[in-house]
Amino acid sequence: MAKILTLHGVNLNMFGKRDPKQYGTATLAQIDEQMAALGKELGVDVEGYQTNIEGEMCSRIHRAFEENVDAIVINAGAWTHYSYAIRDALAILKAPIIEVHMSHVHAREEFRHKSMFAEIARGQISGFGVDSYLLGLRAAVAAINAIDAGK
């Protein structure tokens, strides 16, 4: 069974409490539950991981490399816009990376328009709330299937 790691970055543990206009009311636990349920439906194992510490995120990405994780779905929060360390850790991976955001980052502050991960991610999904994660999971499964088919 393919394994997909969902990485949640800085401040995302505050989903459900933080700015519901931008992020909705779903908690991180609810997002992880929906991801696991959809993963089961799609025939993949989904693990969620969240940290507010950049070095811990890099270490988890390194471990994903060692574990041969099949794909990554990542919402790095604000780290998306400035973390070269996380970008470099992700670049080590051979697995496809799907970047997701609950809010529509390109309709927000200018600094949110730049992604450090854009060059190495398979794609970006933003602005659909929790559905951004679910669409990201579907994109990750499609990317795994394309690799398996030799495309």
From TrEMBL:
<dbReference type="InterPro" id="IPR001874">
    <property type="entry name" value="DHquinase_II"/>
</dbReference>
<protein>
    <recommendedName>
        <fullName>3-dehydroquinate dehydratase</fullName>
        <ecNumber>4.2.1.10</ecNumber>
    </recommendedName>
</protein>
<dbReference type="GO" id="GO:0009073">
    <property type="term" value="P:aromatic amino acid family biosynthetic process"/>
</dbReference>
<keyword id="KW-0057">Aromatic amino acid biosynthesis</keyword>
<feature type="binding site">
    <location>
        <begin position="102"/>
        <end position="103"/>
    </location>
    <ligand>
        <name>substrate</name>
    </ligand>
</feature>
<dbReference type="GO" id="GO:0009423">
    <property type="term" value="P:chorismate biosynthetic process"/>
</dbReference>
<feature type="binding site">
    <location>
        <position position="88"/>
    </location>
    <ligand>
        <name>substrate</name>
    </ligand>
</feature>
<dbReference type="InterPro" id="IPR036441">
    <property type="entry name" value="DHquinase_II_sf"/>
</dbReference>
<dbReference type="Pfam" id="PF01220">
    <property type="entry name" value="DHquinase_II"/>
</dbReference>
<comment type="subunit">
    <text>Homododecamer.</text>
</comment>
<dbReference type="GO" id="GO:0008652">
    <property type="term" value="P:amino acid biosynthetic process"/>
</dbReference>
<comment type="pathway">
    <text>Metabolic intermediate biosynthesis; chorismate biosynthesis; chorismate from D-erythrose 4-phosphate and phosphoenolpyruvate: step 3/7.</text>
</comment>
<comment type="similarity">
    <text>Belongs to the type-II 3-dehydroquinase family.</text>
</comment>
<feature type="binding site">
    <location>
        <position position="75"/>
    </location>
    <ligand>
        <name>substrate</name>
    </ligand>
</feature>
<feature type="binding site">
    <location>
        <position position="81"/>
    </location>
    <ligand>
        <name>substrate</name>
    </ligand>
</feature>
<keyword id="KW-0028">Amino-acid biosynthesis</keyword>
<feature type="site" description="Transition state stabilizer">
    <location>
        <position position="18"/>
    </location>
</feature>
<feature type="binding site">
    <location>
        <position position="112"/>
    </location>
    <ligand>
        <name>substrate</name>
    </ligand>
</feature>
<dbReference type="GO" id="GO:0003855">
    <property type="term" value="F:3-dehydroquinate dehydratase activity"/>
</dbReference>
<keyword id="KW-0456">Lyase</keyword>
<comment type="function">
    <text>Catalyzes a trans-dehydration via an enolate intermediate.</text>
</comment>
<feature type="active site" description="Proton donor">
    <location>
        <position position="101"/>
    </location>
</feature>
<feature type="active site" description="Proton acceptor">
    <location>
        <position position="23"/>
    </location>
</feature>
<dbReference type="GO" id="GO:0019631">
    <property type="term" value="P:quinate catabolic process"/>
</dbReference>
